[in-house]
Amino acid sequence: MLAVVVPQSRNAALLRRFLPYVIAGLFAAAIMAGYNFAFAQEADPDANATDIGNLTTMIAAFLVFFMQAGFAFLGAGLIRSKNVTNYMTKSFMDFAIASLSFWAFGFAIMMGTSAAGIAGTDNFFLVDAGDDWSVYVSWMFQMVFAGTAATIVAGAVAERTKTQAYLAYSFIIGAIIYPLYGHWAWNDDGWLGALGNIGLPGAADYAGSGVVHAVGGFIALAGAVVVGPRIGKFNSDGTANQLPIHSVPFVIIGTFILFFGWFGFNIGSGSSIGLNAINTLLAGATGAVVALYITIIRTGQADILMACNGALAGLVGITAPVSYVDPWAAVVIGAIAAPIMMGSVWAIENILKIDDPVSAISVHGTCGLWGLLAIGIFANGNNDVNGLVGGEGLQIVSQLISMGVVLAWALVTGFAMFLLLKFTMGVRASREEEEQGMDLAEHDQPAYDYLSSPQ
Length: 455
Description:
- A two-stranded antiparallel ribbon has the order 1-2.
- Strand 1 (about 115) and strand 2 form a beta hairpin.
- It has a single domain, classed as Ammonium transporter fold.
- The chain is globular.
- Helix content is about 65%, strand content about 0%.
- It has 14 helices and two strands; from the N terminus they run αααββααααααααααα.
- Helix 2 (about 45-75) runs antiparallel to helix 7 and helix 10 (about 325-350) runs antiparallel to helix 11.
């Protein structure tokens, strides 16, 4: 991947220098707070077990929350410097907007008392939670997942989308689109988990390859199609141009943060913490290595940007099966995820002619589907889920149903939402705003003080 990089300011250099220390400090503070909390309790074994379980889930939620910084760095690094403020504004505000919409509507629809396995019907605005502190813990954990689904879309529509439209669809994703599919897959009475009623195993998705990543990834595809490509991305004959990016270090830092936060994503969903952590690490590492060596074989160059996407592809791929497979299977899943992602990136740009600046569709959408399918192949009986490896042939049928449902749901609702916004408030910035840069056009706040003119 050829990258055209704009020079960095002194502020950016200082940020790269001190960011690792900030991250380490935050992590140490979280560990110390957890230690003090856990050991300040009275010696009631049952109460302590509940408190420690809640604490583990909350720490995992905080790790997933910190992934927002990773998405912000990753996406900002892969776009032009004239749009960095705009991109990071959206990465920050989509989480804030999704938090409110999930509190008001999303959590109730997703985790409330089920109506026919379709949607929840109570606990809007958390009014029915009362003194059940486990509900608040559950809300926090599910909310950061909703924020992740919303922010995945940002990369595919970067550098040409109006901020107001972006905030509107972040609200809709957190309030309706993510929670409804989440109810089907994760609510105890959701219909996807109850396929046993028709003689099939329940569709499985341990930590969200489908619920979070495929939903976000295919909404991103719909958004990229409706908004259209950036100016200059495609020539008149349909061939694609490689537009400049502004910071390879930002991409690497963002990937590190996302990888770190992914442990919260995958270990906070249940009890098999050790296995989940190992599988997460192995799949992400394998994806990075395989992607890097594919680029070396193809071009003779070690493409770190593709290696970063390979790591993320492996992480997305292992998110659904993380607690159902052995470590060797995690390696295989990550190894397959990397070329799937790379092939998808090529096809989306060169066949479908879709402009996705950060490869969100391929990393999250395509690899999210792979994660769902991998359960049907590699699940070994852990947590009562058996794939072909475990001697169960029907699980893969349930997983294929889940793949079809999430693909259809995300595309239909994504296109409906973006078309509605297009014909009401508008989603695309004007040509003049796009050429000037969204930082100046929408914020009058360039990311770097040396930018006297758009880069």
